[in-house]
Structures are given as structure tokens and as C-alpha cells.
From TrEMBL:
Family: Belongs to the ABC transporter superfamily.
PROSITE patterns per UniProt: ABC_TRANSPORTER_1 (PS00211), ABC_TRANSPORTER_2 (PS50893)
Entry annotated with the keyword ATP-binding: yes
One annotated GO molecular function: ATP binding
Domain ABC transporter: 8-237
CDD domains: ABC_TM1139_LivF_branched
Organism the protein comes from: Pelagibacterium flavum
InterPro entries recorded: AAA+_ATPase, ABC_transporter-like_ATP-bd, ABC_transporter-like_CS, BCAA_Transport_ATP-bd_LivF, P-loop_NTPase
Record SMART domains: AAA
Cited Pfam families: ABC_tran (PF00005)
Protein name as annotated: ABC transporter ATP-binding protein
Length: 244
């Protein structure tokens, strides 16, 4: 991705979890204002990359630069304050609290901005319906909507989303894709991990493929979508098939 206007860049990043060396020199640039898909087989290091960006795992070697600032040694709260929001694979919501209470906790002022909340309602109309329901009683799709809503209740420059469609029904996936399209129109930069290749094709602008803790391919999503041989080589499947 050389030559792009990178909002976030990782240079030779190594991450260990305990004694296990998971990221082996990740080099990655996330262009400003685009959605980059982070794809790869299970265990390739995609989630570890997301967690390393958020400093949930420390960088052993290498450098992370966000908006021109070296953020390699900052803490997770400091990273969030810089304008990076994260929707983890486990969604990160509090099941015993209502959707409203989850949103209040995410708002810096202790109460969601009314105009911002109306915009979120437009993205996720169903949120109005389950606003006062305990989050633990919501369906998988409703919890995912709430998780993304929490992440964007405050304006963010970069949104990290880890496998948002995992286990969801096709109709819910379509609704999430519509919401992601609407988010893209606001100009927010997005890095998304996703196993659903059809969704990646629909919403992705660029793609980075991981294998064994390294980035093995970068390019446009359109080019990867058009090359079935490359898909098979990088991801282990043909169009219409499943990842190996």
C-alpha cells in the first residue's frame, strides 16, 4: 500500500502472548477514509493484530504510527482517546445492563449526545426497540448492533471491527452491511476482520491478507474478488467455497 495516505501504519510489529510468538514482523498501512479488510485463515494473527493496535497485547518490537504520531508505547485508554474505537469479536458489552446503560457507559460525558444518538438510530433502527432491554437477552444480531453503536457513540477516526457477522443470519448480515456502508459515507476509516468473503467483497475497498503472523498480500478488494486463483492460494478457497 505504499504511497497511500495512511492513517495507521504498523512497521515490523512483533507480538508475543506469553512465550508464544504470534506476530512475526507485521507491516501494514491503513489508508485514510477507506475500509480495509484483514483476511486470512484461522490462527493467522488477525485478532492479535487488532488487539496489538489497541495495546491489549504489548508490542515487543516494531512501531505503530497513528495520524502521524508514534503510539507504540501508549496505553489502551490513551489509544482510545486518540480516536481509535474497537468492536472485539466477543462484542464487549455488559449483559446485565440494558442497551441504554451500555451506551451511557461508552459516552464520555456520561450521557450520549442527542444528535449523535439519532444518527445511530438511523444506522440501527432496531436499537430503539431494544433500548431498555438487558443486553444479555438480545439476539446475536442485536448484540452486534449494540456493540458497534457503543464503539461509535463518540466520533472516531479509526474503527476496528473484529468478525461482526460471526454466527449471524443472512438477513442480519445484510442489515449490518447497510450500516457499514452508511458509516463509510461519513468518512471514518475502518479496519475489519471478517470470514464472510461475500461481505468483504461488498464493503471492502482494500484488503490485507495474513498468514502465520505476517502480511502476505495487500491490494484492492476488487482485484482479489476478480482473481479466483489468488483467493485459493491466499485463503484456501474458491469463490462460493469455505476457508480451509
Amino acid at each position: 500500500m505504499a504511497g497511500t495516505d495512511a492513517l495507521l501504519s504498523l512497521s515490523d510489529v512483533h507480538t508475543y502472548i506469553g512465550r508464544y510468538h504470534i506476530l512475526h514482523g507485521v507491516n501494514l498501512e491503513i489508508p485514510r477514509g477507506e475500509l480495509t479488510m484483514l483476511l486470512g485463515r484461522n490462527g493467522a494473527g488477525k485478532t492479535t493484530t487488532m488487539r496489538t493496535i489497541m495495546k491489549l497485547w504489548p508490542v515487543r518490537e516494531g512501531r505503530i504510527v497513528f495520524a502521524g504520531e508514534d503510539v507504540t508505547r501508549l496505553s489502551t485508554p490513551e489509544i482510545a482517546r486518540r480516536g481509535i474505537a474497537y468492536v472485539p469479536e466477543n462484542m464487549g458489552i455488559f449483559g446485565t445492563l440494558s442497551a441504554e446503560e451500555n451506551m451511557v457507559l461508552a459516552a464520555r460525558a456520561g450521557e450520549p449526545n442527542a444528535k449523535r444518538l439519532e444518527w445511530i438510530y438511523d444506522l440501527f433502527p432496531a436499537l430503539r426497540k431494544f433500548w431498555r432491554w438487558p443486553a444479555g437477552q438480545l439476539s446475536g444480531g442485536q448484540r452486534q448492533m449494540l456493540a458497534i453503536a457503543r464503539a461509535i457513540i463518540e466520533p472516531a477516526d479509526l474503527l476496528l471491527i473484529d468478525e461482526p457477522t460471526k454466527g449471524l443470519a443472512p438477513t442480519i448480515i445484510d442489515a449490518l452491511a447497510n450500516a457499514i456502508d452508511a458509516l463509510k459515507e461519513t468518512g471514518v476509516t475502518i479496519l475489519m476482520v471478517e470470514q464472510n468473503f461475500a461481505l468483504a467483497e461488498r464493503v471492502g475497498d482494500r484488503v490485507a491478507v495474513m498468514d502465520d503472523g505476517k502480511i502476505t498480500h495487500t491490494g484492492t478488494m476488487a482485484a482479489l474478488s476478480a482473481d479466483t486463483a489468488l483467493q485459493c492460494r491466499l485463503l484456501g478457497f474458491d469463490v462460493g467455497g469455505d476457508a480451509a
